[in-house]
Amino acid sequence: MPYPLIQSAQNPKIKRLYQLHKSHARKQEGLILIEGKKEISLALQAGIQLESLFFYPRYTPESWIESLPLDKQKVRIFEVSEEAMQKIAYRPESGVVATAPPPVRRLDDLQLPSNPLLIVVEAIEKPGNLGAILRTADAASVDALIVCDPQTDLFNPNVIRSSLGCIFTVPTICAPSETVIAWLKKRGVCIYTAALNASIPYHTADFTRPSALVFGTEATGLSDTWLQAADQNIIIPMSGYIDSLNVSNACAIITFEAKRQRGFKR
User: Fold this and answer.
1) Neighbours of 32 (CB within 10 A)
2) Which residues is 49 bridged to in the sheet?
3) If DSSP codes are grouped into helix, strand and coil, which group holds residue 77?
4) Cβ-count burial of 53 within 10 angstroms (0-12 exposed, 13-18 middle, 19+ buried)?
5) Torsion region of 117: left, alpha or beta (phi above 0 gives left; psi -120 to 50 gives alpha)
6) pLDDT tens-digit readout, 174-185
7) pLDDT for the residue numbered 14
8) Which residue numbers delimit the RNA 2-O ribose methyltransferase substrate binding domain (predicted)?
9) Which of the following CATH numbers is that of domain 5-100: 3.40.190.170, 3.30.160.100, 3.30.1330.30, 3.40.50.720?
10) Is the entire prediction scored with pTM above 0.85?
11) What is the mean pLDDT of the chain?
């Protein structure tokens, strides 16, 4: 079916989408920006209800739009020119951008199995690192990612893009560190903190029991709040000149060791 065509990058709707790249505009509008076919497909699979969708037919054919499980009466769909797509998309070749209300997720809403494996990150600053951690969490099928005291918007378009949409496939919660620690201890989840001091090699830890793998920033590591709450500090042995890895790499290594110990069961 034909959709309304927006030619100009100065169109008010295009200007509105451009503004949604900024955190204050997303908060004011109560919307997130989702770019890319894979990312939009995963959002829809997760039950996200789109508000609007803009596509450039050279890269995103109308047939793909028609294949989406959308309520065409509720979602406003527009074809846009190349000029307009270049304004609203970080990667114009993705060919499609959508807006949606962000999902509301709370710690107490998490439904955990009897032997959960969780990833916890504290004060993560870089959207690319958070996106990479989300990809690890999805690939390892962890039960949740808990983001404590974040320094970046969880639904920053860069997080959505760098996670390839895994922000929608992994139960992801924001909460203060003290709240999360109390929640974990109440549920008997063992807290393993990645730290440089007083630590055992990560592969010697027992991750077969209910486990939370906790990571801090590269600059300062984890706060004393987490280090004092830990059941065990763990470390990845370094054989070179540096003493630590990028947080997303460290997370991947330790998470997949935990999965190995668990027989890679989902």
Assistant:
1) 24
2) none
3) strand
4) buried
5) beta
6) 999 999 999 999
7) 98
8) 33-106
9) 3.30.1330.30
10) yes
11) 95
